[in-house]
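User: Need the bound-state model for N~2~-(3-carboxypropanoyl)-L-arginine:
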Amino acid sequence: MSAREYNFDGLVGPTHNYAGLSPGNVASTTHGGQTSHPREAALQGLSKMRSVAALGVGQAVLPPHPRPSLGTLRQLGFTGTDEQVLARAGREAEHLLRLCSSASAMWTANAATHAPSADTADGRLHLTPANLQQMFHRAIEAGTTHDVMASIFRDARHFTVHRPLPGGGQFADEGAANHTRLHVEGRPAVHLLAWGRRAWGEAPRPHRFPARQTLEASEALARLHQLDTSAVLFPQQDPAGIDAGAFHTDVVAVGNGSFLMLHERAFLDSEALLTRLHGLLGPSFRFTVASEAELPVADAVKAYPFNSQVLTLPDTSMVIVAPLEARESRTAHRFLERVVAEDNPVKKVHYLDVRQSMNNGGGPACLRQRITLTEEERRAVKANVFFTEALDARLVAWVKKHYRETLSGKDLEDPQLARECLTALDELTQILELGAVYDFQRVP
Ligand code: SUG
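Assistant: Bound-state model below.
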């Protein structure tokens, strides 16, 4: 049965801001404290969706989460009215307020890991929302992500939405940012489930920055998704790459269909990995590796050429959707030009402006969750999440109506901002026909 990939982009939330929350993510640390532009950020995101849809590629949308998360603040002992909770948090625990206000759910590559029904033993599409254990501001996304996905993919004949992996940091899971599915016609798809540290057992570790995902989490995903173990590989992220700022695999590697492009610092033993992939995928497998000499990993982290979307067009050729920063960097640009010139399916690079997100370390690839759906599965999704001209127009109007032009750290204490956010999200669930997916909509 023919299937199509849909890129489920995260709509940037109304509290998009730069709080410097992610050690090991160079852009987040560098821009921490700057004034953000939420409206522009959300419109940049919508403009990317429009460009991808115009290429003839499947496009859909996932909603932001309610922020500031008053529920989390209350769980941590802040009591009273919303105003009192925010005022006390702003006074006594400013950092906590920032953590509870991040619009980080926009990076939906981290929302979940998915396996298309063609690859699973029970023939259902499997999705596991990521627990994002490693960073507090991201860990609080998991519950809402689960509820949103359970609403969109509610038809149990086709879809299984698992609970996020349990426990503490031992099963720390960052979602599809560490997952790559490669596929060539006539062979089983290969799943790369990468990881940065082991919960139990020895493995080389980064020294400077945290390794977020564990091997144990990646193994659990392969089991839950009922993947054929002979086609699942668990490469370790190169600790030197993590120490240079490649906190997720998708900062230094991206794959699609028969094609993989990676930096030599992406995985610990790239050569062995490429040999295995060649064995599993056969002669049509193509790859391009950037060496440190050609493209220093620091440049890759800054310009994000690998944090691109590699998309298959209806005519089966591929294009790369890269951030503008990759064109502005001499080394990154030259590398992408080489990719297009080589013998592989990639024919063109489109450079897009997602600077507002890039300043927090989120490029085009971070902003989307890829989900492959058969026509029947697509029809089983009843929510209004597929990107059409009509939905585009409604979302643009919705952003213009509700989003602020600018946001600084101090604004996060403003109870009016919290109210604006909840009003906007309540309206959005009606546009997207999601039902009451947010906690605040269920409180009597
Ligand atoms: O988890 N940034 C995100 C960026 C996620 C990028 N996703 C992928 N590579 N797939 C993170 O580090 C920064 C928020 C702040 O500092 O305000 C942040 O959370």
